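Annex B. Sample input.
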Amino acid sequence: MASGKILVAQGGGPTAVINQSLVGVALEARRFGEVQRIYGARHGVRGIVNEDFVDLTQETSHNVTSQ
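Annex B, continued. Sample output.
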């Protein structure tokens, strides 16, 4: 089976909507066996350019929203 990685990048300020959408992506991605790693880019596109990623694979919804 092929393995996959997901990278999430968001723009805008830290709001409840942004935080919850990040949690939703991370939790939903875990439902798919093909997804092996879930990464978040710090500061949106700038994080992609600077290769500044956070591994969200093992994070819980509580941990993600409290960071």
